[in-house]
Amino acid sequence: MLTRRMTGSKLSAEFVLCYILAIERKLFQLFDYQKNKEWHMSETAHCRTLDKVTVGLLGVGEIGGKVAKTCKERGMKVIGLVRSLDTGKNRTPDVDVYLTYEKLPKLLEESDYICCLLPSTQETRNILSGDMLAHCHRKRGVLISIGRGDVVDEESIVKAIRNKWIGGAVLDVFPEEPLHAGSPLWSLPDVYITPHISGWSVAPQFKEEMVDEFVSKFRIYQSGKPLSHIIDWEKGY
């Protein structure tokens, strides 16, 4: 079985950049002020340029690599969390510092945005649950979760927001979908919920790209050449 990567990685990277820019430039506050016909210059003009931002990526596969490139091209510092520091693996130059899983607290402490792209495996399930997000407290980083929903449970995100460990959360994936109507996440401040669409589009452009990608891989398969993006069932992704 193969995975669809090319189209999804571009969309995911733009999704991450979109929310970083929106939060940095106070767009959500500006929308609220507009609704209330309020004019606040000093509060909403307090922003920094992207070259002062550090992004921590949990997972640096194909999607993570695209996110890293998108962030690095705009001057951001990029920290990447990986399973091992095996130098034999391909490593993107767009990541400034690589850390292994046991160094997760360090990544959380140093990142302004924590972008979770991890697959669902025995190693990664609930990796951010419990009090792990307390390590974000110094910078109050914003969690952007677009990988798999079971890397952190709902209660842990709620606790992190209420305790002001994190400055907000952009949540595109959840342990159970759709997110139930009774969840406190819907109404917590600085939490932005999207319906699992960070790497998905039904626009004609992307349908055509998916067909082209399928045809290309099928021809490679017919020729007997090795395929890329094959799922490793032992690893779980």
TrEMBL record:
Q: Which UniProt keywords apply?
A: NAD, Oxidoreductase
Molecular-function GO terms, alphabetical:
NAD binding; oxidoreductase activity
Reading the lineage from the top rank, the first entry is Eukaryota
Any Pfam family: 2-Hacid_dh_C
Q: Which residues form the D-isomer specific 2-hydroxyacid dehydrogenase NAD-binding domain?
A: 19-198
**Name of the protein described by the UniProt record:** D-isomer specific 2-hydroxyacid dehydrogenase NAD-binding domain-containing protein
Taxonomically, what lineage is the organism?
Eukaryota, Metazoa, Spiralia, Lophotrochozoa, Mollusca
